[in-house]
Amino acid sequence: MVIFVTKISLIMSSIYRIRPVNDYTIDELNNHYLWFSRRSGFKDHNDANIGAFLDNNELIQRAFERIFSPEEIQELRTKMDCTGICCFTGEKPSYKNKSHYPGGDDCICVEYNLERIEFYFLEKYYLPNCISKVYYFDSPVIFEQDGNYHILTQKDKNGCLYESMREIVRTEKNLDKFIKLLLTRIDSRFHYQNEMRIILGGPRIPSFDPNLLGYKI
Fold it and tell me: Strand pairing partners for 154?
């Protein structure tokens, strides 16, 4: 089963974060920042785990090995683990559904103005269209293949799109787009969260210190 969240509506004015009631959340609100977690803080070990995609898809691994040395692949795994991800939902959850979100029943819903968030990340981080929709799969780290070179990268009411891994790794732009795709494939068990994400990586990351759990942005 594959569940795709529909494209973010142009008329959407608000997005939401479900936060636990604790000192960290109070500090975040009082000091006006967003907490960007590293994947080590996620409940699902495979969420945003680049290494899991390489380990479970021989086609992807072979493509990466054509352009990266073993040392560079290991460095990529390490740096990708430092990626910062801030999670939102497009729907304000009802009181009954709060238990489905991190923090359970003991949580609060924080509403954010979508336009202001998009403007901030465009101005400060040169990140247009910063909100990324999420795709849900029963086995998110495994890509469906067509032959020895193509993988399924998109499926919707208009059909299926298979792309060649040779073309994906041919240019930096295509590779960046593919990496973003890997960071937005989530287990379908969490589809009720209707999640959206802001993803910060590369030079936008404040620090590559392996001991950090995330970033205050």
Answer: 161
Residue 185 in contact with residue 135, Cβ under 8 Å? yes
Decide if 13 contacts 113 (C-beta within 8 A). Answer: yes
Number of domains making up the chain = 1
Categorize the per-residue pLDDT at 156 as very low, low, confident or very high, splitting at 50, 70 and 90. Answer: confident
Helices 58-67, 70-80: axis angle to 10 degrees equals 110
pTM check: above 0.90: no
Mean pLDDT, residues 116-139 taken together:
93
173's tokens: 């732009």
pLDDT, greater one: 99 or 8: 99
Structure token digits, residue 86: 């801030």
Give yes or no for residue 1 having a pLDDT over 50: no
Q: For residues 136 and 191, is the Cβ–Cβ distance under 8 A?
A: yes
For residue 27, the enclosing domain spans 2-216
Cβ neighbours, 10 Å, residue 137? 19
What pLDDT digit, counting tens, does each position of 177-207 carry? 999 999 999 999 988 888 999 999 988 888 8
Sheet strands side by side (includes 145-146) = 145-146, 150-156, 159-164
